[in-house]
Amino acid sequence: MTPEIQPTVLITDCDHGDVAIEERVAARLGYRLVTAQCRDEDEVIAAGRAAGAVALLTQYAPVTERVLAALPAVRAVGRYGVGVDTVDVDAASARGVAVCNVPDYGTEDVSDHAIALALALLRGLPALDAGLRSGVASLDPVKPLHRFSETVFGVFGLGLIGEATARKARGLGFTVIGVDPRFAAGSTSPSGTVVVGEDELLERSQLLSLHLPLLPQTHHLIGAEALGRARRGIKLVNTCRGGVVDTAALIAALDSGAVSAAALDVFEVEPLPADSRLRDYPQVLLTPHAAWYSEESFVELKRRAMEQILEFCSGLSATNVVNAAALQEAADVR
Fold first, then answer.
1. In this structure, what are the phi and psi dihedrals at residue 179, rounded to the nearest 5 degrees?
2. Per the database record, which ranges form the D-isomer specific 2-hydroxyacid dehydrogenase NAD-binding domain (predicted)?
């Protein structure tokens, strides 16, 4: 008998070191796994064709309309993470291709990181550490410091991670306010966050933590205009997407003192360029897109990202299909 040919899933790119977890999931569900390190559309197309892939799992590589048109056998595209801005979801929907993510794998981890960055800024830890290492034992570079109970902690975006960050901030004694388009100003979010309007959020927040997806309407949302409306001396934490913040506007605001400090885990260009001016500010704390990581989240991300796309391809129930409604609508029309 001719052995049955297993369908193939392609990991377009991955910097995790190994894919043993993904291999176990693929084997359990009856798929062959092929890996590549694609950087652009052409490389994804070439690798997908060579593998005969029916599913793609991507970290940073783009899955565009052109890629999907060139790989008609692909039935599902998954992304390592929450955001799917590297995938053309509309093009996928038009072709009946499921787009899957893992929206809740890093909720605790990213919110933990956001809180850690916020506390470091609010207590002046980077400047205090740098001063002491250079032989200066002084509080002057970080004055004034305020009690958490006297500080307004703003949360822009009250999804899973934003709500978790707000919950933890309230537990530390901050006055917490938030904005989310799903909730009306004057209401309370499901976790108990007081919802305000965007103007009030910017005007009142002494520290603002960003938890927004990168969409056309959120690109450079925190730019010169928003920073001009913000409370002078505001501190900014970004653990969501680099493109939400206009880097040039942030640098100008740091120069003018409109923003007194910032902690950034994500950047418009990653890795952060060696000549970026963000590296020059002692009041700017930088981490290398690390907020998602813990040993627990790492395992969960890899396992669930692979499970989602292969369960869909196998006709099983995949819980995190971001374009499920569009796929169902297209099926109903057919």
1. -130, 140
2. 115-291
